[in-house]
Amino acid sequence: MAFIDDYRAHVTEREALGVPPLPLSAEQTAAVIEMIKAGEGNTEENLNLLFTRVAPGVDDAAYVKAAFLNDVAQEKISVPSIAPEMAIEVMGLMLGGYNVKPIIDGLESKNAAVIKASVHALKHTLLVYDLFNDVVEMHKKGNTAATEVLTSWAEGEWFTSKPALADKLTVTVFKVPGETNTDDLSPASEAFTRSDIPLHANSMLRSKMGEGCIPAVNALKAKGHNVAYVGDVVGTGSSRKSGINSVQWHMGEDIPGVPNKRTGGVVLGGIIAPIFFATAEDSGALPIELDVNQMDDGDVIDRFSISDQPAVTAEGYRLVWYRSLRKAELDAVARSNRIERALKKLAALRDKLRSPRTRYRQDAKVAEAVAEILQSCEAASWIVTAIQPQTQATFRQNHRGRPGRETQYVKKMATRFDLTYRIDDARVVADATGDGIFPLVTNVVDLSELELLKTYKRQPTIEKRFSQLKTDFEVAPVYLKAVHRIQAFLCMYFFALLVESLLERQLRYAMRRHAIDALPRTAHAWCV
């Protein structure tokens, strides 16, 4: 019982720091196991310590835990509070390391419940390394449980069985204006505590906010929603993993069986450093780059919908919306190019208006020239123009000859025009929210959104095939008038395309069998 007293004192010390207790050491783990075997103390508390407060992986404490649970699973020892299949289930939460071999051995158990638990645990265990070959050997010997595990791995059930992302995320904004580098999230001055994630996370943003960061985050959590880290520029610097650990500790979710570490969390940034972005994804967070200028600290937002209710067009056809990152990049570049072309042409028009020999003497003519430029450049939505009339007086003598003291002049008033223009930044930002989005309208109802998109992507290949009708086959002109004759004529061309595609498929199959990547280009001549 001395262990429990010492451990509870440790818990109290850590609570004063605002963090949970450290994971159990190997000695502490062994002490808990002995108490469980002997039935000493509070059984529920002891089991919770063993199941949730031992770090997974390959440290000494994990070895002690796995060895004990393996003995229980193989029924070498009997513990009233831990059934053999429960031992396997608990080892299934240890990610990988000393637990993998005992779980694989469970596939050959004489206990059906242990086999079932081992299959389920292995389906969600990835860090098996060379022990994968042991499962393969069991499969070859006819072990159906091993076959089920291999099939699950091949089908990626470890991923497909995870809960789907919610249709809509509701988050409370924790806004950090300006640039946040990884040293702000994980100060180098506190590097000695990085292995103790909860303690190290207490220093997050201390250089920017002093001691006010953690209370501010906790106050936002009180609103009842997950908190999203929001910044103009996020994640520059090198301490990306420890920086993500700090963010996830305050804004993520606990990992079952893994003490003092969390996953999940949402990171929103106008710019997110690429390596930080990748590290966030690898850690289970959801990083999103978007315009954060309109977000304020404490805002509750739920604008991150990833799917909407099924929609139909006015004609009743199925309407599906997609967003492509590549298309978003191309849309932004296309808009920038259109604006740039329009500005150059407007500048040239302005120079003409200011020329003494300008031909634009009427307001309507100038407006027509401006509209033509914006329309031809497809930039009317993003450029605001103003035509400014200016009245100028000119004087001319009333008769020919050399002017003298008595020469009289006639005053003439002429209207000239100037042009001003500017980019409508607000409209550009608003339109940028639709970058990459495109709809598909179809009467197909038995394909999923993903299958429909893959089918649509085959369209260029099909169109390329039919383009041969106009090029290689020269289907036009057609010297037929009767509709049925034209249909029969085109049908023959369709059969020609079909035969050609079948021949090409046979050729590609043959190339695959003989490991030929490409055919050599050779000169050829068509023979009639």
Question: How is this fold's topology laid out?
Answer:
Blueprint: H1 2-17, H2 26-38, H3 43-52, H4 60-73, H5 84-91, H6 100-105, H7 112-123, H8 132-140, H9 144-154, H10 157-160, E1 171-181, H11 182-185, H12 197-201, H13 206-209, H14 213-221, E2 226-236, H15 240-251, E3 253-255, E4 258-263, E5 266-272, H16 274-282, E6 286-289, E7 300-301, E8 311-312, E9 318-323, H17 325-354, H18 363-377, E10 383-397, E11 409-423, H19 425-432, E12 437-442, H20 449-457, H21 459-466, H22 483-513
Parallel strand pairs: 1-2, 2-5, 5-6
Antiparallel strand pairs: 1-7, 3-4, 8-9, 9-12, 10-11
Helix pairs in contact: 2-3, 2-4, 4-5, 5-7, 7-9, 8-9, 17-18
Description:
By secondary structure, the protein is an alpha/beta fold. Helix content is 47%, strand content 17%. It has 22 helices and twelve strands. It has helices spanning 2-17, 26-38, 43-52, 60-73, 84-91, 100-105, 112-123, 132-140, 144-154, 157-160, 182-185, 197-201, 206-209, 213-221, 240-251, 274-282, 325-354, 363-377, 425-432, 449-457, 459-466, 483-513; strands at 171-181, 226-236, 253-255, 258-263, 266-272, 286-289, 300-301, 311-312, 318-323, 383-397, 409-423, 437-442. The strands form four sheets. It has a five-stranded mixed β-sheet with strand order 6-5-2-1-7. Strands 8-9-12 form a three-stranded antiparallel β-sheet. Helix 5 (84-91) packs parallel to helix 7 (112-123), helix 7 (112-123) runs parallel beside helix 9 (144-154) and helix 8 (132-140) packs across helix 9. The radius of gyration is 36 Å and the shape is flat. 24% of the residues are buried. Mean pLDDT is 88; it is low at 523-528.
